[in-house]
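Fill in residues.
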């Protein structure tokens, strides 16, 4: 029987190197497992990251006629209903007819009040007045940036795109809100107004809620804020 010759280029690995590998492998495995567990914890956790606002917190609802409560009364507007549900002090800073530019002009006065949270809902009148979407987006972004610079939390509220079909049928959110929320890294409450304004039972006219509609919106918003970890 012939025995194959040993490959002359093969070099024996020093025993010391194996010893070092034996020492370092467990540490490498432990480090890798820790990294994987961190990734899964971040990627799979549903734990809210915001801090719960206690009863009595100062919250400002900033926006247009949907915030003001047009078609109902101040007592049935969504900020009043939200205050009942959350036990926060919710100030209604909604102004009928305001565009994003109008709200931007008022933002410094709201910042000066140093609220714990701002609920920002504006942009519907921009569509009705045919303001360019890019201008509306820039204005809303500037509003959010002012609050972020003052370390004030903001929740953005989507409003419907008031097209002809939306006015007389199913409303849907204007897509600019999702884009802004992603860019600005702020929570977005979507679908609330679109759902209300798609239901004849909840409307006072084609673009405003009635008392039942404002209550339903406030209830949906409150559940969202609980899910975000802002309300309990």
């Amino acid at each position: 029987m012939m025995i194959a010759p040993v490959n002359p280029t093969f070099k024996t690995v020093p025993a010391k190197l194996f010893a070092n590998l034996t020492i370092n492998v467990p540490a490498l495995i432990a480090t890798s497992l820790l990294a994987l567990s961190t990734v899964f914890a971040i990627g799979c956790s549903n734990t809210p990251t915001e801090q719960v606002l206690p009863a009595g917190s100062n919250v400002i609802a900033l926006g247009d006629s949907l915030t003001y409560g047009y078609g109902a009364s101040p007592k049935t507007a969504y900020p009043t209903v939200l205050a009942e549900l959350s036990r926060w002090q919710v100030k209604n800073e909604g102004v009928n007819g305001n565009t994003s530019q109008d709200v931007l002009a008022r933002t410094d006065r709201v910042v000066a009040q140093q609220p714990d949270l701002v609920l920002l809902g504006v942009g519907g009148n921009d569509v009705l007045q045919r303001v360019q979407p890019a201008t509306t987006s820039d204005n809303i972004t500037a509003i959010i940036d002012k609050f972020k610079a003052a370390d004030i939390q903001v929740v953005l509220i989507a409003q419907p795109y008031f097209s002809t079909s939306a006015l007389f049928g199913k409303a849907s959110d204007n897509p600019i809100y999702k884009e802004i929320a992603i860019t600005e890294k702020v929570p977005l409450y979507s679908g609330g107004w679109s759902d209300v304004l798609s239901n004849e039972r909840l409307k006072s006219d084609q673009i405003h809620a009635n008392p039942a509609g404002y209550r339903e919106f406030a209830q949906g918003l409150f559940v969202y804020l609980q899910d975000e970890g802002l309300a309990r």
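The two ends are 83 Å apart (CA to CA).
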